[in-house]
Design a protein that fits this description.
It contains nine helices and no strands. It is mainly α. The chain starts with 5 loop residues before the first helix and ends with a helix. The relative contact order is 0.11.
Length: 192
């Protein structure tokens, strides 16, 4: 039996994820079943389960396909970004990269009820926070005089950036698409 290449496996996982996103957009997270994804993808149930052991694992993969490349970009960047610039970069996941905000909000809701999905979302959120804090540290060092103060400022700013990103996701899911810069400008104006 021939070995399946990593590229083939990744392409098949992407194919399944795209079929799942179409189903999730149509039916919602709670109502979408593996059978729906099987029908949408044209693959067998066994093929789906050979790539994803649960809906939670599939959810993590979907979010990861959109979010993790942006996180890797931030992790490897040496550019100094302010919280505003970093927030705008993150929000492009929803406007340029195409992660549907409505699905993310539904994942959050399901995570409150399903332990395995909650665990997946918590791991993703932890990586997001770590990446944001790491990316904000050069900026924070320019604003402070000690490493301890810089780390504290980066941590506080990470919470704010994360909360604003969550607000953008919820706002976009409920009220429709919005440009990140417009959203950020409106937040700054409201808080001025």
């Amino acid at each position: 039996m021939p070995r399946v290449s990593d590229d083939y496996r990744r392409a098949r996982r992407d194919e399944i994820a795209l079929a799942a996103v179409r189903c999730l957009e149509r039916k919602g997270v709670h109502e979408t079943s593996i059978a729906d994804i099987v029908e949408e993808s044209g693959l067998s149930t066994g093929a789906i389960y050979s790539h994803f052991t649960s809906k939670s694992e599939l959810a993590r993969y979907i979010v990861g396909q959109y979010l993790f490349p942006r996180l890797q970009e931030l992790e490897h960047s040496v550019a100094v970004r302010s919280p505003r610039q970093l927030l705008e970069t993150l929000l492009r996941v929803f406007t340029e990269d195409g992660l549907p905000a409505r699905i993310v909000v539904q994942f959050w809701g399901e995570a409150a009820l399903a332990g395995d999905l909650r665990d997946e979302m918590m791991r993703t959120a932890a990586r997001l926070r770590e990446t944001i804090a790491h990316a904000l540290l050069p900026w924070a060092r320019q604003q402070t005089t000690t490493d301890a103060a810089a780390e504290s400022l980066a941590a506080e700013s990470t919470r704010a950036v994360t909360a604003l990103a969550q607000g953008f996701v919820a706002n976009t899911a409920v009220f429709g698409p919005r440009e990140p810069r417009e959203y950020i400008d409106s937040v700054v104006a409201a808080l001025s």
